[in-house]
Amino acid sequence: MQDFVKDSQRSDGSFSSLVVKLKYNELENYLVVSHDSGSIDIWNTGKPKSKREIKAHKYRANSITFTSDGKAFFSSSSFENSTKLWNAETGKLVHWIRDMTGPVGATSNNRFYVIANSGQFRLFDNQQGLLLPEKYTSEGVVTAIAAEASTGLIAIGTESGTLELWKYSENKGLPAIKKVSSFKPYETGNWVVGLQFSASGKALYSVARFGSIDEWSSSTLEKRRSVPTLLKYVYSTAFSPDGNLLGLAGTKEKVGTGAGSVEVISLATGKSSAFQVNTNLAVVEYLPPISSFIVSQNRSAGVFVLPHEPSP
Fold this sequence. Notes:
Helices cover 3% and strands 51% of the residues. It is mainly β and 312 residues long. It has two domains: 16-230, 7 Propeller (Methylamine Dehydrogenase, Chain H), CATH 2.130.10; 231-312. The strands form seven sheets. Strands 9, 10, 11, 12 and 13 form a five-stranded antiparallel β-sheet that branches. A four-stranded antiparallel β-sheet has the order 1-2-3-4, with no helix packed on it. It has a four-stranded antiparallel β-sheet with strand order 5-6-7-8, with no helix packed on it. The radius of gyration is 18 Å and the shape is globular. It starts with a helix and ends in a 7-residue tail after the last strand.
């Protein structure tokens, strides 16, 4: 982390160095950092001075998703209409999936992944490196995907404010997805920016752009409760792997202007800790090894480590 912080502080401060996504994988200890320029930094957090930089896209990679084994990751750029799969150790390009804007989500079979393209999504066969031909249509531009392995459920959030539940299944080795339910809890423009199933798989948490956090039954999408937040505009979200903690970065004003803030919320108790940062475009990610969130809080990608989690 010290190497990462020092390297970030050496940035030239230009807009192209702006961090747009942080993604950590606990299995292989990789931290992936994508920039507005389209470049991606890969850090092995178990080794000092391990930065590997790749020019992944011409424009920003606004979605990063690790494969289930943590050895590779997908990067998607809606600005150039492509998704790519990279070897996390070498930084080598494994597959170039054209005309798919992302985001990417897992399924209950580690071989297949869901890749969105605006208001549609398809299954990608990671073993064969192929997009399967069948197209599935959502009720808006897909902005967030979450999967629950034990049930095969896939949650989809859209730009139009809808939530959808799909079910992954296989018949004689052939994968398929079928819609289970959907409804529209948020107004158009208040799109879903974060989704996560609980550790038990019985609950689904959603975060909407204008500061809404809700818990739903993962089987029926029946609303259980809303979780209060200080933020009225959310730019970045990150859940702890067990789904108990949620980190938010944004502002206390709905328009997304003014001083930036980061808030960490216990989804079990609703208690939170918040602090101000020096940008309204902060990016947050959870780091299990130090049981805390890291935050890129300025254009030179400075990092702030939260000193503790919210008290239970």
